[in-house]
Design a protein that fits this description.
Elements: H1 2-17, E1 34-37, E2 40-43, E3 48-50, H2 74-77, E4 90-92, H3 99-105, H4 112-116, E5 121-126, H5 132-143, E6 149-151, E7 157-159, E8 165-167, E9 177-182, E10 187-188, H6 196-199, E11 200-202, E12 208-210, E13 236-240, E14 243-247, H7 252-268, H8 291-296, E15 299-302, H9 319-329
Parallel strand pairs: 3-7, 5-9, 5-15, 6-9
Antiparallel strand pairs: 1-2, 4-8, 6-7, 10-14, 11-12, 13-14
Length: 353
């Protein structure tokens, strides 16, 4: 009996060392770069503010966020919403679930493998709001819509919902996609009324700076004294949906954050292939994907690939940098070139501002 007691005594420290025990009530510190999928935390390598964090934006709430609290409840808000069909701005990803899976997850009980089998697209938007704060105000207080992520001018990512939720951001793609609204004032045709002159000016050296109008409130709060500049100083003109549009580029901070988030999502969700829709010769498709191709596409796409009446994220987005940098972070080879071959170099971010 002595040897048995001695064996247990010797083994006890080993068992305790391997059990990851913490004192009740001890604090588990986060690093500040985590996103949430099916209740689990995943690192991105870039600053993230969750809906549960101070300064976050909570799309689980049913009241308006930017009105006095005594006027924010749902019943008072209904006359101010575009389409107040129901209080929640999100739904269950139910279209590909079996009856048994739906019954299991309807109370929130998603497991990661089930979610991974249902998500295979990452949809990029520009918000035409200029700031993530304004974007959330529009979605939550006016439009009865939602999006999983918002990317502010300074590169801060805000997550508003667990990725298990079906956010309302891209119509027929909602059930299978994750969505992000990138702070940018959008793209416009030559004859269209444009806010770009109000938001973008030149400094004494001729560099383009983002000038946030007073009506939009203070500058992004996460980076004090942040001075936003588009990556390229001149307007970028290109074709989207068969129209010639002009747009100022996104900021370098946004590009770096977007590439890291893309890498994280393509890793968490293996069915999101780290590539964009291409024409037969390999170049970026700049119009809506035909219905059969959209159904079969698994990857990163713009809102304009989903709907003919949308042009975001516009002609300025440097797709090759975002996808190339994400693939590099994932230790994958570079993506295809226009001639269909695999590139031997990583695209660099074009910056001249």
């Amino acid at each position: 009996m002595f040897w048995k007691r001695r064996s247990v005594a010797l083994l006890a420290p080993v068992l305790l060392a391997g059990c990851c025990c913490h004192s009740p009530g001890s604090h588990e510190k986060r690093k500040g770069d985590e996103i949430v999928a099916a209740g689990q935390f995943f690192h991105t390598g870039t600053p993230v503010v969750l809906w549960m964090d101070p300064g976050g934006y909570d799309a689980y709430r049913v009241e308006r966020r930017f009105v006095p609290y005594d006027q924010a409840d749902y019943e008072t808000s209904r006359p101010h919403l575009d389409a107040p069909g129901k209080p929640n701005r999100y739904d269950i990803r139910d279209r590909s679930l079996t009856p048994e899976e739906l019954e299991r997850v309807r109370g929130g009980g998603w497991d990661l493998p089930t979610l991974q089998s249902n998500v295979d697209q990452f949809v990029l938007h520009f918000d035409v709001a200029g700031l993530s704060r304004t974007c959330f105000k529009v979605l939550q207080d006016s439009r009865d819509l939602s999006v999983h992520f918002m990317l502010d001018l300074d590169g801060t990512i805000y997550q508003t919902l667990d990725l298990k939720e079906r956010a309302r951001h891209a119509t027929i793609a909602n059930n299978r996609s994750v969505g992000i609204e990138i702070a940018n004032m959008g793209s416009y045709g030559a004859a269209e009324k444009s806010p770009l002159a109000e938001w973008y000016t030149k400094d004494a050296s001729g560099r383009t700076i983002i000038t946030i109008p007073a009506r939009a409130g203070p500058a992004p709060e996460r980076t004090p004294h942040f001075a936003g500049r588009p990556a390229r100083r001149e307007l970028i003109t290109g074709e989207v949906q068969g129209r010639q549009l002009s747009q100022y580029d996104f900021t370098p901070q946004q590009y770096r954050a977007l590439a890291k988030l893309t890498a994280a999502l393509c890793t968490i969700f293996p069915r999101i292939h780290c590539d964009y829709p291409r024409e037969a010769e390999g170049k970026l498709m700049t119009h809506k994907l035909p219905a059969p191709q959209l159904q079969e596409f698994h990857g990163v796409l713009g809102h304009y690939h989903v709907q003919t009446n949308k042009v975001d994220p516009g002609p300025a987005l440097q797709w090759d940098y975002v996808i190339g940098q994400a693939r590099r972070l994932m230790h994958m080879p570079p993506q295809r070139t226009v001639d269909g071959k695999t590139a031997t170099w990583w695209p660099k971010l074009k910056v001249d501002n």
